[in-house]
């Protein structure tokens, strides 16, 4: 696989992971925690798919002096990971709020 294809896949899967994480957050805001979990699972799958391409950069023939596109693509994937992890924590807070509301209601 050439460098451009690897970069494309890093950006693609990073973007998909981020989008799924935000879909999970939207579902949690509505109180649909099962849907939120499904989106988080998809976000994890997308991230790990992207991670495979990141490994191709660091372990394969593609390892070379990084260029701007390589740096950008890796940044996209790692930013998606950071956002996904933060969103998971936010969803846990939504769950706690929901439980408290049920106790009070």
How does this model look, in words?
The protein is mainly α and 105 residues long. It has a single domain, classed as Phosphotransferase system, lactose/cellobiose-type IIA subunit (Methane Monooxygenase Hydroxylase, Chain G, domain 1), CATH 1.20.58.80. The protein is 87% helix and 0% strand. Helix 1 packs parallel to helix 3 and helix 2 packs antiparallel against helix 3. The longest helix has 37 residues. The protein is elongated. The model has no long low-confidence stretch (mean pLDDT 93). This is Phosphotransferase system cellobiose-specific component IIA. GO terms for molecular function: metal ion binding; transferase activity. It holds the Pfam family PTS_IIA.
- Topology order in helix (H) and strand (E) letters: HHH
What count of structural domains?
1
Biggest pleated sheet: none
Write down the CATH topology. Methane Monooxygenase Hydroxylase, Chain G, domain 1
Shape: elongated
Strand portion, in percent?
under 5%
> Which second-level CATH architecture applies?
Up-down Bundle
Distance between termini?
57 Å
The helix count comes to 3
Number of DSSP-assigned strands: 0
- Share in helix: over 70%
- Would you identify the CATH H-level superfamily? Phosphotransferase system, lactose/cellobiose-type IIA subunit
Unreliable stretches: none
Which structural class should the secondary elements be placed in? mainly alpha
**Arithmetic mean of pLDDT:** 93
What is Rg?
17 Å
CATH class: Mainly Alpha
Modified residues (Phosphohistidine): 72
Organism: Caldanaerobacter subterraneus subsp. tengcongensis (strain DSM 15242 / JCM 11007 / NBRC 100824 / MB4) (Thermoanaerobacter tengcongensis)
InterPro entries: PTS_IIA_lac/cel (IPR003188), PTS_IIA_lac/cel_sf (IPR036542)
Active site: 72
């Amino acid at each position: 696989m050439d460098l451009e294809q690897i970069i494309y896949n890093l950006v693609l899967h990073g973007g998909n992971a981020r989008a799924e994480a935000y879909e999970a957050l939207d579902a949690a805001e509505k109180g649909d925690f099962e849907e939120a979990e499904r989106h988080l699972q998809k976000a994890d799958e997308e991230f790990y798919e992207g991670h495979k391409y990141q490994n191709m950069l660091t372990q394969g023939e593609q390892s070379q002096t990084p260029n701007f596109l390589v740096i950008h693509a890796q940044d996209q994937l790692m930013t998606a990971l950071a956002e996904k992890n933060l969103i998971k924590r936010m969803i846990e807070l939504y769950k706690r709020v929901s439980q408290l509301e049920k106790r009070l209601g």
